[in-house]
């Protein structure tokens, strides 16, 4: 049965979707951008600050489903400029143990919602 996951500790959806859907032991998160959940303002001071906000938003969604980054099996990273890849990757890497890091793809796209620089979604499984 499908369970909707939403938390005030991550940005409220800005369209007809939820922050995540839990089916059985598998959590599918919507893509998160760098919206501060308290103010709904974008955190765009630097690509590092933007990426940290995205990851913190995902951490809050995972926590609401009683999961952590250790449960993540797949991530999708969408970036507006591949030249930012190394900086995004450096922040992203601080949230995972390299030995158990999830599978992932990183794709450069023409535009993202609200013209942000990075959006990340995840699939997590509680085994």
TrEMBL record:
<dbReference type="InterPro" id="IPR035959">
    <property type="entry name" value="RutC-like_sf"/>
</dbReference>
<comment type="similarity">
    <text>Belongs to the RutC family.</text>
</comment>
<keyword id="KW-0378">Hydrolase</keyword>
<protein>
    <submittedName>
        <fullName>Rid family detoxifying hydrolase</fullName>
    </submittedName>
</protein>
<dbReference type="GO" id="GO:0016787">
    <property type="term" value="F:hydrolase activity"/>
</dbReference>
<dbReference type="InterPro" id="IPR006056">
    <property type="entry name" value="RidA"/>
</dbReference>
<dbReference type="InterPro" id="IPR006175">
    <property type="entry name" value="YjgF/YER057c/UK114"/>
</dbReference>
<dbReference type="Pfam" id="PF01042">
    <property type="entry name" value="Ribonuc_L-PSP"/>
</dbReference>
């Amino acid at each position: 049965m499908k369970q909707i996951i939403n938390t005030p500790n991550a940005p409220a959806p800005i369209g007809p979707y939820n922050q995540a859907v839990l089916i059985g032991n598998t959590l599918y998160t919507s893509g998160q951008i760098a919206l501060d959940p308290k103010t709904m303002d974008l955190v765009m001071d630097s690509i590092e600050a933007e990426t940290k906000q995205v990851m913190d938003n995902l951490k809050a969604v995972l926590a609401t489903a009683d999961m952590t980054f250790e449960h993540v099996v797949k991530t999708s990273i969408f970036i507006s400029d591949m030249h930012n890849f190394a900086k995004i990757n450096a922040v992203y890497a601080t949230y995972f143990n390299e030995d158990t890091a999830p599978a992932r793809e990183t794709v450069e796209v023409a535009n993202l919602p609200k013209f942000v620089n990075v959006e990340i979604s995840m699939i997590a499984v509680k085994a």
